[in-house]
Write a structure and sequence with these properties.
There is one protein chain. The protein contains 16 helices and 32 strands. It is α+β, with helices and mostly antiparallel strands. It has four domains: about 100 residues, 3-Layer(aba) Sandwich (Rossmann fold), CATH 3.40.50; about 70 residues, Dna Ligase, domain 1; about 240 residues, 2-Layer Sandwich (D-amino Acid Aminotransferase, Chain A, domain 1); about 70 residues, RNA polymerase II/Efflux pump adaptor protein, barrel-sandwich hybrid domain (OB fold (Dihydrolipoamide Acetyltransferase, E2P)). An eight-stranded antiparallel β-sheet has the order 13-12-9-10-11-14-21-19. The chain has a five-stranded parallel β-sheet with strand order 3-2-1-4-5. Helix 4 runs antiparallel to helix 5, helix 5 packs across helix 6 and helix 12 packs antiparallel against helix 13. The relative contact order is 0.10.
Length: about 575
Amino acid sequence: MFAKVLIANRGEIAVRVIRACRELGIGSVAVYSELDRHALHVRLADEAYALGGHTAAESYLNTDAILDAIEKSGADAVHPGYGFFSENADFARAITERGVTFIGPPPAAIEVMGDKISARDAAEKVGVHGVPGSAALLADASEVVAFGDANGWPVAIKAAYGGGGRGMKVVPRADEAADALASAQREALAYFGRNECYVERYLTKPRHIEVQILADTHGNAVYLGTRDCSAQRRHQKLIEEAPAAGIPDDIIRQMGEAAVAVAKGCDYTNAGTVEFLYEDEGFYYLEMNTRLQVEHPATELVTGVDLVEQQLRIASGEPLPFTQDAIEIRGHSIEIRINAEDPAGGAFLPSPGPITALAPPDGFGTRWDTGYEAGDEISQYYDNLVGKLIVWGRDRDVAINRALRALGELKIEGIATTIPADVAILEHTDFRANQHSTKWVEEVLDLSGVSTTATTTVDVEDPKIKREVDVEVNGKRFSVAMWVPEAAAAAPAASGGRRRSAGSSSSGGASGSGDVTVPMQGTIVKVNVAVGDTVEIGDAIVVLEAMKMENNVTAEKAGTVTEIRVAEGDSVGGGDVVAVIA
């Protein structure tokens, strides 16, 4: 087993891996950006090293900085978590070339399965077929148009070197192909460090079914049941379940065997997930995620298998401790992603900011995974996942009721969250009857009037003189106790990042206002209009990126653009006026 594992990630997955390491007697090493200097994963790790920078590109996607931290810490293994470098073959190879173990599949398997084009080909070779799609990376939007005209609309543009819905855009018709491709490429580059994309057919009402696999270095591979991840918005999962309900046992078995075949076909090892689209008792290979999934706890609760522990053991050379026949699915689990977003009638607007209060639920069959505590801040520069509420029940109905009870107990203040939308999903008769698809949230679920506000509880704290202070020596983090004047304790933390003032407004603008305001903090990635342009209600004026997601900021009034107050790359705050329409 390893002596020391560096976790090349942040948030709840870094916390999850740190805890698994501690249970196995393995030392843990955290890395952090300037904004994460005091983050929970940093506080829990045995050691922590500064990466510098604020954005992901400047920190968690900075290969040299992470390699430097590995060298300084003496870590003999690296766990990539998910997102960031978890599916980057170049990063995995850079780790292994230094004699350090990458806790994940071999670089060659990442290259095959991480590239969604070669992954489709690899799946086809073992008899696992996917949705009709392109066989090459997209060079320009004309190829999207040609594919759509030949195979039917809508089509889906997807990031070739990513997953989880990031960098995915649904294109309903030809005239939207260029903008959709550009947007998908920007998101893919921001989240995965590469912007290559491909195109495939977009099914009408599919369910999103995943199969969790484990494969060791001794030729053994098993599947650990299924997960249904159909409750999505913007192709981002809201609620996941294990196992997938209402699918015949023989099809479940076929999916599992297909997933194992795909893994063995590319000499895959460690944990991975093979994803399928299921419709009318047929299933289609979608992609393979060559990493641990965000929703892995749902599988853990119904199988009793600690997937992170198994990742560590497999990477250290141990064989799987069980065979396929020993895998037993017991009961039903539901995982609810709690994101810092205001459902806002279905708009799901990012809501970065400080968490002023956080009290997780408790009780039988209830688990809470998070990377935050009260006092921590959700940054606009990273994913907006606050935490994951996971419940177990003896059957699906019990699990749904337990999830609703736990959501009622969960207290998060200071930011808006998706909790009201989660409740609306769980209470809906379609969801309870298992009659939902990947498009159900956006096309059927009525979220009008469903919203949340960023509430704050103010606690009056007695003055303190003694303070725990974090210092860095040659990039390594240490915690020390210092006695300081009371006034020093109240000094505000410095904030980073370029901010261009775009005017101010206390709200997103009243209906019909000529002021175009942004609903949340973020970065302007595209300005769609110029002074003098004529626009209609609903036209996209600018594209705002917040928490790795692009949002169109639209006109609430028809007229002529008289002012543009921002440029591409500018940072703006919620309520800022970015344009004026007369």
